[in-house]
Amino acid sequence: MKTIIEPFRIKSVEPIRFTTREERLKLIEIAGYNPFLLHADDVLIDLLTDSGTSAMSSKQWAGIMDGDESYAGSKSFYRFEDAVKKITGFSYIIPTHQGRASEKILFSIIGGPGKYIPNNTHFDTTRANVEFTGAVAEDFLTETGKHPEIRADFKGNMDVPALEKFIIEKGKENIPACMITITNNSGGGQPVSMQNIREVKDVCVKYGIPLFLDACRFAENAYFIKKREKGYQDKPVLEIAQEMFSYADGATMSAKKDALVNIGGFLAMNDEQLAVNCRNLLIVTEGFPTYGGLAGRDLEAVAQGLEEIVDEHYLQYRIRSTEYLGEKLSAAGVPIIEPPGGHAIYIDAKRFLPDIPPDKYPGQSIACALYIEGGIRSVEIGSVMFGKYDSKGKLISPPMELVRLAIPRRVYTQSHIDYVLEIVTEVYRNRSSLKGYRIVYEAPVLRHFTARFEMME
Ligand SMILES: *Cc1c(COP(=O)(O)O)cnc(C)c1O
Questions:
Q1: How far is the CA of 99 from the centre of ligand 1 (A)?
Q2: Residue minimizing CA distance to atom 6 of ligand 1
Q3: 330 C-alpha vs ligand 1 centroid, how far in Å?
């Protein structure tokens, strides 16, 4: 087996800015110990997110020049619509400015008090948009997905018996849609098997509930199916993706992930009446149905990105480079969610810092240390992101405390990743010096974006 190389050459470069450890100590303090509040210019390697951070191809940039900026009926919309239809097969394709705009529109229509939305694991914006309408967002992750140390092929799967029990308990009339997030971002970027999608679909059909895919990383999920699920080895990824979508009645999508663009998204479905309602709301909040909050050039870039994302040389490099980081960290003893997911490595902060309890935010502590030691930006996915309070103001923690190292698509080379490995390993070696944190400011929803912290002694 030969080295798997980056399947592109570099035509345009963007310098990154080096800082000293002293500067970073000051900068993270000014940012309230919240990496979201750092200036990106002060970050050396930015692994905050893989969202909207992809490097676009020369063909995508050519599409940017070629975009048709007509208000209505732009040719770029029709190219975009064709590209989305080719992969998803859905009848109605509604462009939005990003994934959460699709969620906002969908749940404003189907959500509301007394309604329940099941998912394998809701992503933070998905949960927020469900809850904002007064509906309840419920997660049904398969048991193996809850154990970071267990290696299994499809740890993003839905717990189907638990889902069915829930539907019976709450009443199918109160469940306007069921969702599956592929790959399961908040659950560790773990894939969902075709068999699981099929089984969820069967339950949905039995109770007359539409199934929606949160399809942000559909191509990565399809590639995992090709590699890991019996019967798919010889199938093109495009066909696997088409089969995944064939079991769904609709999808929400952030094109900032698997459409390789810096902004964009869509909402797609087969139900005509629902599409009419969504488009009416789209006109109020996003724009006319043939641009939906995007410029014509953005639609071109999405259309081109959707062609490039199913390229199997790209996907092989993509999944392997994430796996490479995971393998080396594991070998150095750093506890991570096993096996590595598609778009990110998730450090298991509970095992990394067993002496810092969830209410002192061990994940935040690691994220700050990675910045201070190496200028690397990561994000806590644990009690900061998903923590809630009970009636007495006591923190209710989610099951896992994680730190996500998200890998932007086509942006960093192997030596950048080797540097990341060195820094994480160093922080792990010196973990006994890490401190807990307390929150000194927080917003009522999605608090992780703007919260401010203080380091504890
Ligand atoms: C990013 C993401 C979203 C939201 O998309 P935005 O473009 O950030 O609004 C929803 N679900 C999942 C799984 C995501 O990864």
A1: 5
A2: 99
A3: 28
- Per-residue pLDDT reduced to its tens digit, 34-51: 999 999 999 999 999 999
Domain ranges of the chain: 21-50+311-455, 58-308
Residue whose CA is at the smallest distance from ligand 1 atom 3: 99
**383 Cβ inside 6 Å of ligand 1:** no
What is the structure's pLDDT at 386? 87
Cα–Cα distance for residue pair 24/17, rounded to 1 Å: 12
Q: Using the predicted structure, report yes or no on whether residue 16 has a pLDDT greater than 80.
A: yes
Domain 21-50+311-455: CATH superfamily, name plus number: Aspartate Aminotransferase, domain 1 (3.90.1150.10)
Q: What is the pLDDT of residue 436?
A: 97
pLDDT of residue 328: 97
Instruction: Determine the distance separating the centroid of ligand 1 and the alpha carbon of 221, expressed in angstroms.
Output: 15
Ligand 1 within 6 A of CB of 245: no
156 and 346 Cβ atoms separated by less than 8 Å: no
User: Which CATH number is correct for 58-308, 3.90.226.10, 3.40.605.10, 3.40.190.80, 3.40.640.10?
Assistant: 3.40.640.10
Among 185, 184, 180, 186, smallest CA distance to 212 is for 180
Question: Is the minimum distance from the CB of 100 to ligand 1 under 6 angstroms?
Answer: yes
Nearest CA to ligand 1 atom 5: 99
Residue 320 and residue 339: Cα distance in Å, rounded? 12
Predicted local confidence at residue 157, as pLDDT: 97
389: burial class by Cβ within 10 Å (0-12, 13-18, 19+)?
exposed
Model confidence at 20, pLDDT cuts 50, 70, 90, reads very high
